[in-house]
Structures are given as structure tokens and as C-alpha cells.
Specification:
The protein is an alpha+beta fold. It is built from five helices and 17 strands.
């Protein structure tokens, strides 16, 4: 089945598209890979419904779009213990798995692996067992967030460099979007500077490359000025209408552009089972 034959349903505000009736366990031609990549570039995320995938099929589909993401032993990430098989269990009440992560607590808006030299390019979540009242996942289009900035703000931030500090050098769950005053404290771990405004390597669009989840610092800006600027940008992100909320059903697979979006999850009841499998595609040094 060719991608152009599929029925697609774009979501509100231009972020997210549902691709209907496509069985991802079947052979995927190079032409189809190219068309799906084009959809990802345009809509930032793709929703495939009613899938029934083995772990190998999930990995094979993901890695038609890039090399597997392999964490550096010196820069831990979520699921570093599971890097050998490339699948990370994002789950609550997931007792049958050796390792599962994130539980039921709130997960603040972030892009995956922003603290690394080469953050991931894309990620996929595949819903395995979702009970009623489990939390949704919400994505924010950071290209549109950038586009909506005032001209003066765009000019002020266009050449700035950002450090995102690795939250996995801190006790789990203790980091929550703090602007770091490096006169007093520098968080542990190796750091890498990235543009606060990065350019998408495929679409050449400008992206506000800023999270709300981790410790961060803008290079060469006094603490008071930097913290005020980041607070202003955070408020702008939170107020953006360019977002998509996905209420999970078993068999859903969501494939998203990790460069151009933030994603987050509200807290939910600790007794609710919510189990998804995540696979990640390697990325490049942001520019």
C-alpha cells in the first residue's frame, strides 16, 4: 500500500497527522519511507492506529528513518540500562518488565536528550497496555513557537548558546526547569553548548530549542538577565496554541520529530496501568 493512497487526517493547528489503515508490520518500501519522512517534516508527529507489532518490527520500522540512538556511558539518559535492545519501557504498574521508567508522576515539557552533544532526532511510543484514565501525551510545535515570537525577541536570541544540564546526574525527579546561577553552583556532568535557536536539518526552519524540564544556562549572559529571558520564553511556550494532545489507545504508535517539538505528560493515578514502548532515532549536533 502506497502512502499517497492512505487517508490522512491532519490535526488542529497543523501539528500531528493520523495515517489511517497502514499496517506497519508489513514491508515498507524506500518510497514509502520517504513519504512518511515528508509527513513528519510537515506535521512534526504522525499517529498510526491499530498496530500489532513485535519488538523487532517496532525497531525495524523506527530505524528505517535513521540509526539507532545509542547512549554514551558517560552521559546517562532515560533507559541507559536498556540500550542493548533499543527499547525503553515507559510504564506504570509494568511489573513484568525488568526496567520501566517515569511511573505516574508529571513529566514537564522537554525534548529528549537535549543535554547530549548529539540529541536524538526522533522518537516513537507504542501503546502496549493503557487503562482508562491514564495520562495523555501532549506535543508542542517549537517551530511555530519560534515563529510567534516578537521580532525584537528573535533578534535578541538569534546568536545565543544554551547549556542544558544532564538531569540524570541528579536524584531522579528532583530537577524541574531551574535556571542555573553558575556563580553559585554548576550541576555535575559533561556539558555541550547548543544554539537557543537551532535550524532543522531537513526543513531549514528555525526552532526555539528550549525545554521547561531541566536545569539550563545561557552562555555569556548575566544570571538576572538570562533567568528573566528564559522565564519570558517559558511563558510564551506554555501559552502556545500549537499543540496536540494524544489520548492513548492500545495499538497506537506515535512517531515524532524530537528536534522540532516538546512533549509532556500530566500526573495520573498511581494504580493505573500505562505501558508504552519507546524507540529512538539518533540525531546530529544541533546547528
Amino acid at each position: 500500500m502506497e502512502v499517497e493512497e492512505l487517508k490522512i487526517t491532519p490535526q488542529e493547528n497543523g501539528i500531528g497527522v493520523i495515517v489511517n489503515n497502514h499496517n506497519l508490520s508489513e514491508f515498507l518500501s524506500s518510497d514509502n519511507v520517504s513519504k512518511i519522512q515528508d509527513l513528519l517534516n510537515k506535521y512534526r508527529l504522525i499517529i498510526f492506529q491499530n498496530q500489532n507489532l513485535t519488538d523487532n518490527q517496532l525497531k525495524e520500522f523506527a530505524h528505517r528513518f535513521g540509526s539507532p540512538f545509542v547512549p554514551d556511558i558517560n552521559s546517562p539518559v532515560l533507559g541507559s540500562k536498556d540500550s542493548a535492545n533499543a527499547i525503553v519501557i515507559v510504564g506504570n504498574q509494568a511489573h513484568e518488565y525488568t526496567h520501566s521508567y517515569l511511573g505516574h508522576q508529571e513529566v514537564l515539557p522537554h525534548s529528549d536528550h537535549q543535554w547530549l552533544q548529539r540529541p536524538s532526532a526522533a522518537s516513537l511510543l507504542y501503546a502496549v497496555d493503557i487503562q482508562e484514565n491514564a495520562a495523555p501525551t501532549i506535543w508542542i510545535d517549537m517551530v511555530q513557537v519560534y515563529n510567534d515570537l516578537e521580532f525584537e525577541t528573535k533578534q535578541a536570541i538569534k546568536d545565543l548558546q544554551l547549556i542544558t544540564y544532564n538531569p540524570f546526574h541528579r536524584p531522579f525527579g528532583s530537577v524541574s526547569g531551574k535556571y542555573v546561577d553558575s556563580r553559585i553552583e554548576i550541576p555535575p556532568g559533561e556539558v555541550f553548548e547548543h544554539p537557543l535557536v537551532r535550524t532543522h536539518p531537513n526543513t531549514h526552519e528555525k526552532i526555539l530549542y528550549l525545554n521547561i524540564a531541566y536545569e539550563m544556562e545561557i552562555i555569556g549572559i548575566p544570571y538576572e538577565e538570562g533567568s528573566q529571558l528564559v522565564a519570558k520564553l517559558h511563558n510564551h511556550i506554555i501559552s502556545s496554541k500549537y499543540r496536540y494532545e494524544h489520548n492513548w489507545k492500545n495499538g497506537d504508535l506515535v512517531f515524532w520529530d524530537n528536534r522540532a517539538t516538546l512533549h509532556y505528560r500530566p500526573a495520573f493515578d498511581a494504580t493505573t496501568r500505562r505501558v508504552l514502548k519507546r524507540v529512538t532515532v539518533a540525531g546530529e549536533i544541533p546547528a
